[in-house]
Write a structure and sequence with these properties.
The complex is a heterodimer of chains A (407) and B (409).
Chain A lengths: L1 E6 L5 E6 L6 E7 L13 H9 L8 H10 L3 E6 L4 E7 L4 H11 L6 H19 L2 H14 L12 H6 L2 H11 L5 E7 L3 H12 L20 E5 L6 E8 L8 H12 L5 H7 L4 E10 L4 E9 L4 H18 L3 H18 L3 H15 L5 H10 L2 H11 L5 E6 L4
Helix pairs in contact in A: 3-8, 9-12, 9-15, 10-11, 12-14
Chain B lengths: L4 E5 L5 E6 L5 E8 L13 H8 L9 H10 L3 E6 L4 E8 L3 H13 L5 H17 L4 H13 L12 H5 L3 H9 L8 E6 L3 H12 L19 E5 L5 E8 L8 H12 L5 H8 L6 E8 L4 E9 L4 H13 L7 H18 L3 H15 L5 H9 L3 H10 L6 E6 L6
Parallel strand pairs in B: 2-6, 7-11
Antiparallel strand pairs in B: 1-2, 3-5, 3-6, 4-5, 8-10, 8-11, 9-10
Helix pairs in contact in B: 1-4, 1-7, 3-8, 9-12, 9-15, 10-11, 12-14
Classes of the chains: A alpha+beta (407), B alpha+beta (409).
């Protein structure tokens, strides 16, 4: 594995990790923009814009874009989160420059009115689809409750109302402010020629203009509110807990991820023994999500509505015990082993590796090899976890419960 | 012939197949055990899902907690699933821990404790998961579709039926679990960084027990085409439909794969283009090839708001119908490169290949090498695909809708 890094004069960063033995190559544009960069009037625009990039450029229609990707056999897609919009493709090595070149064109989309109006229907259908999936709905509602006025509580999809009233002009303005080259990282890993990729980026992307894309970073403790939403059509109770964790810039993030795993991995965790193994809940998971300047632990529990009170009581016991007795050396070691094997397996494929490679750069302007991540996981000590429990108090949380039960 | 492929058969009939990948540090393995939903006795629908959880609740001399803690300490990422034919136990882990993990799986398969108190918990979880499907209408619609489409007992839901799970007898379920190791019908596959001789020795020592009869196979009862609406409150109508095609053993398998790719392989495919891109009728639409040993079909899903459901179904059906008019050269080229890319990317994942070679052995009686598949894809032409589609027009469909309103079919 060899890492290389270059920056164009306009601020576009290009990073690459080459592995001549890989059978495939993955490439992605990481745009540092998402729901947290939106105002309420344009809520949902980042995600809608992600759809619109596939509608083509002045020279390429939407149908031609899709056909061009498919001619290359590309496995391609995009996703939008609270703070990133990522466009990616995995291809056989011989098609890498073609697919990267196509993405470079699409990063300057036409944003035509006709396409905008038609795609609006698709976005509204996507919102309707997630309304029927309470496991997603509960997370969205919990995020809004926990973050309150902090922008990380913004919904990625937006609402029916915000999408209905959004105009193509508003989207164009947002695009021009956020898709500046100094806000974008082009990352690539697998079997490819880094110099050739940089040469292509220089030809295609040098004309993009720099902008001020500063994002105001503020941490938040969260509201610690408690809310029930009744939906009589649901069959199960869906519960989400959120509490403060650490940011992507925080060196404690490996400890925080391990703590999330010790408490809420789907196998052998505290939640597993307290909730899943005794059949009180069919799903009980906890994860640490580190973000730009902030972070949350979030838990998702799905259970019988009649057992929801018992479940919340058990959760309280889990956290009380954590506060009084901490965790054991064996629990830490087990979580480290699970995390290391997951890391090994994921990074064996270029597509699996691309996301960590890109995000390490986006958040910290830093290259971290898989081996460095392995060392960081191994280096976490019991004291690090104990300190984190004391500093973050994961037992103090915001809770949202969604289901047929009234309270 | 695939030079990295290993195969070995124990005296009791159990088959071991492996594919070595030199450059990885991980290994994945998979056991296919013949206790799939179609093999379960009448009234025991869902017993496979209960057993899948029960096996992890104590095996050999280890209690439930000791077993889970041991697997976790070894960093074993587990996947357990039930299908019409099998209960599949899969694991991915760092190669150095393989031998210790195989010992634990041998205990779970041959010496599960099957304690009565643990049975109740496994059954309760299976019931909860089944009820949870009501809050996941996309998945539920497709499971209802398979139940309507496949001949009985092949459509029986692996996750069970509430009444049958509630009255599932402990003794009978334990008896089914004891019959799951019918060596002549067990397949073990492994992919990644391993030494085949060492693996064979370990598996032979652990599993070369005397053959025991397993569960009997029932005679299949065919179903005709039909439409069923399942009323449910929700924002969308979830549409599932399925039409018959030959199984993976067919000489036309690659023509079918190409046709599915033209329909739904990517964003320039016909369904995505006609239903979503041109008309904005939905967010999700897609089709895929599903094959059991003796029955196969192309299934299709779309979810859309009630006022667009009828048009969505009509446009989808039209796309299936007009396949008999053939495909274009450009579509053929896109399908070829898409199929080849999927194949190569699958070959980079030890888990995907462990599943792939086990499925090949079960369905075809042999494992196809990547070169063979690549050659078959290369040999496709618009004439061969067109000839197949003319001979197999898609006229008969099983259709399911789940949501507030029915459609006309």
């Amino acid at each position: 594995m060899k890492f290389e890094h270059r920056q164009l004069d306009n601020g576009l960063t290009i990073i690459g990790e080459t592995n001549p033995n890989a059978q495939s190559t993955a490439v992605g544009f990481f745009v540092r923009t998402g729901a947290r960069d939106e105002t309420p009037q344009i809520n949902g625009v980042s995600h809608f814009l992600e759809h619109m990039l596939f509608k083509g450029t002045d020279a390429l229609s939407a149908l031609k874009v899709n056909a061009a990707f498919d001619r290359l056999g590309a496995k391609f897609n995009a996703f939008t989160s609270e703070e990133n919009t990522v466009y990616y493709a995995a291809v056989l090595p011989e098609y890498l420059l073609d697919v990267a070149g196509l993405w470079m064109q699409l990063m300057r989309p036409a944003l035509r009115d006709d396409d905008f109006n038609l795609e609006k229907n698709v976005i509204l259908e996507e919102i309707a689809m997630y309304k029927d999936l309470p496991q997603f709905e509960v997370m969205d509602q919990a995020r809004a409750l926990h973050f309150d006025t902090h922008p990380c509580g913004n919904s990625v999809l937006g609402t029916n109302e915000s999408i209905q009233s959004l105009t193509a002009d508003q989207m164009r303005t947002y695009f021009s402010q956020r898709y500046a080259p100094n806000n974008i990282t082009l990352a690539c890993c697998g079997n490819f020629d880094f110099d050739a990729l940089c040469q292509l980026a220089k030809q295609r992307c040098s004309g993009w203009e720099q902008m001020d894309t500063t994002r105001k970073l503020e941490d938040t403790a969260g509201t610690f509110k408690n809310k029930h939403i009744v939906n009589p059509h649901l069959v199960r109770q869906h519960i989400c807990l959120m509490s403060p964790a650490v940011s992507m810039q925080d060196r404690r993030r490996f400890s925080a991820s391990l703590l999330g795993m010790i408490l809420g991995d789907d196998s052998g965790s505290r939640y597993y023994w307290a909730l899943t193994e005794p059949a009180l809940a069919e799903v009980a998971s906890m994860q640490c999500e580190s973000m730009d300047g902030t972070g949350v632990f979030y838990s998702y529990i799905c259970c019988d509505p009649d057992k929801s009170e018992q479940v919340t009581g058990v959760l309280q016991d889990v956290f009380n015990k954590l506060n009084t007795a901490g965790i054991s050396e064996a629990e830490l070691e087990t979580a480290q082993n699970k995390m290391l094997s997951a890391l090994t397996i994921k990074c064996e494929q270029p597509m699996g590796r691309l996301v960590s490679l890109g995000f390490n750069w986006v958040y910290n302007q830093q290259y971290r090899s898989v081996q460095q991540d392995v060392e960081s996981v191994k280096a976490v000590q019991l004291d690090d976890i104990s300190n984190l429990i004391e500093q973050l108090s994961p037992g103090k949380f915001t809770m949202l419960s969604l289901g047929p039960k009234s309270s | 012939m695939n030079k990295n492929l290993d195969i070995y058969k124990l005296k009791n009939g159990m088959v071991l197949i492996g594919e070595r990948l030199e450059q990885v540090h991980s290994v994945s393995f998979r056991f296919l055990l013949p206790v799939g939903a179609s093999l379960l006795p009448q009234g025991c629908c869902g017993a496979g899902a209960v057993i899948a959880d029960w096996l992890f609740r104590g095996a050999g001399t280890r209690t439930s907690r000791e077993l889970i803690e041991m697997l976790d300490r070894l960093g074993v990422h587990r996947n357990t699933s039930t299908s019409a034919h099998h209960l599949a136990l899969s694991a991915s882990l760092e190669a150095g821990n393989l031998s210790a993990a195989l010992d634990l799986y041998a205990d779970m398969i041959l010496r599960p404790q099957l304690a009565a108190d643990q049975f109740e918990l496994s059954r309760q979880l299976a019931i909860s998961e089944l009820q949870g499907l009501d809050d996941d209408p996309r998945q539920k619609a497709m499971l209802l579709l398979y139940e309507q489409y496949y001949p009985d007992p092949y459509g029986r839901p692996a996750h069970g039926k509430t009444e049958q799970l509630q009255s599932l007898p402990f003794e009978q379920t334990a008896d089914i679990a004891k019959k799951m190791f019918d060596p002549s019908r067990v397949i073990f596959s492994i992919c990644g960084n391993y030494d085949f001789k060492t693996v064979c020795q370990q598996i032979e020592a652990a599993f070369d027990t005397q053959a025991k009869p397993g569960l009997a196979v029932e005679q299949a009862v065919l179903k005709g085409k039909n439409y069923t609406h399942f009323p449910a409150e929700g924002a969308q109508v979830h549409i599932g439909l399925m039409t018959a095609v030959p199984t993976v053993t067919s000489e036309h398998y690659y023509e079918i794969a190409a046709a599915v790719s033209v329909l739904s392989g990517s964003m320039s495919s016909r369904l995505f283009t006609e239903v979503r891109e041109k008309r904005g009728l939905c967010y999700a639409v897609g089709a895929s090839y599903k094959t059991l040993k003796d029955y196969a079909g192309i299934s299709c899903y779309s979810g859309t708001t009630p006022d667009k459901a009828q048009q969505t179904l009509d446009v989808i059906l039209e796309q299936f119908h007009c396949l008999k008019d053939g495909i274009t050269e450009e579509e053929m080229q896109r399908a070829k490169v898409g199929l080849k890319t999927s194949l190569i990317m699958q070959s980079e994942s030890t888990y995907a290949r462990a599943c792939g070679i086990a499925a090949d052995h079960f369905l075809l009686g042999r494992v196809r090498g990547l070169d063979e598949i690549r050659e078959k894809i290369e040999a496709l032409s618009i004439d061969s695909v067109g000839a197949f589609l003319r001979q197999h027009p898609f006229d008969d469909f099983t259709v399911v809708t789940l949501g507030p309103d029915a459609v006309t079919f």
